[in-house]
Amino acid sequence: MIDAKEVAKHNTSSSCWVIIHNTVYDVTDFLSSHPGGAKAILSLAGQDATEEYDPIHPPGTLEESLQKSQILGPVDPSTIAAVTPTPSLTSSSPEKAPNNGIPPLEEQLNMDDFARTAEQVLSPKAWAYYSSASDDLLTKTHNNTAYRQILLRPRIFKDVREVDTRTIVCSTPIAFPVFVAPAAMARLAHPSGEAGIAEACGREGVLQCVSNNASLKPEQIMAGRVSGAQPAWFQLYVQEDRRKSEALLKRVDVLGFTAVVLTLDAPTPGKREADERVKNAGNTTSATSGEGVQGKGEGGGLGKALFAGTTPSLTWEDVKWLRKHTKLPIILKGLQTHEDAAMAARKEMLELGVTGIILSNHGGRAADTAPPPVYVLMEIRKYAPEVFDKLEVYVDGGIRRGTDAVKALCLGAKAVGIGRSALFGLSGYGVDGVRRVLTILREEIETTMRLLGVYSVGELGLRHINTRALDGLIYQEPQELSVGVIKAKL
Fold first, then answer.
1. Which residue ranges form the domains of the chain, and what is each CATH number?
2. Which end of the chain is more exposed for a tag (fewer CB within 10 A), N or C?
């Protein structure tokens, strides 16, 4: 067994050892090729790096990256206390309450309760990454408030003892019209990470869209499902080196995923200032793509780190490239105008296997002051209603209540996605927390349907809501464009 004092001597770029789960690794030769940059490792050289390493690397990463001779053996645990470690960048700071101080799970009654608890237990780094949004947070805030301006129209004298929330999305039955949207780095919230979310989704009968920047490998996440038939989508960020994306798609195609979600709302990362203030972005990489900040360990935020290598050059022609490299249905994520929705519904796109679109502004993390997805939903209904007949339309962003989900369904959405809420449920509670989040939303959807006098989600429509308060806020085509259209028709 190796004395921790001996490990502490190896704390330079010429001889760098770290302790992870009581095993000593010589990572000297790995410094130059670490996607997060050498500084990320050197900041923990000669120390126990388990707390920093664990949330952002899938099991087996070092074993796959190092030679057997570089796995030096177990550390003597009795000697670790003799070495004073640098405070972990991912462990909770002293002012944070310990995990055992969180409320009982049954006392979490809504999404805001989970958010407050997550802020209490997550590390500053994790909270900054999960909660941050672009610039002045206007779009993030607007996402969460837009649904409040839509009023429900309850009906009476309806026998609503039984309501049916079941629906079909992308040819797959689900228990209720909610899915977990792609959200990266779930192991910052809980060791089970995305695999824990997969289990929760399976037990509650909904689907998960796995992030391209997940903290576990796709194989590990899919192993968390409750059955091989459990549906799951895979989110793709196309890399500058297309060969990396093509290799990833080959893996995805054989793992049991049921669709590929091509993300388009963030060709470049937004300016997430809360995230950037945590000056340790460089020590994080995606378990799926292996991408991270190349030699820029001194800052930039986790969001910017995970965008390293992502191409900003996608065009409509790239859907043809995607079709060549996957047999799965294609869903386009991040549409924010009726024009792009209409483009996605063109015959050419349908023939390439585009089956759906997700209206999303990246959770307010891309272009600040971009419209809330529900506004885009109304805009499509106004200017391009044919889209709903050709594609399944999903909404991702701002869903805080079951009433929000029902309002989106009334406007034509097939299902709604939640991202942060699933991560916040995972924080402190693990799989059961995510299940509780999903259960709350299902029960709120059922209650709303009963109060509207609706028996199934397929019955929901415009007659159940009043959107007049939003009419003046929905995009209006320029007058010259409208005149041109009228002349063309004449």
1. 4-82 (3.10.120.10), 117-281+299-475 (3.20.20.70)
2. C
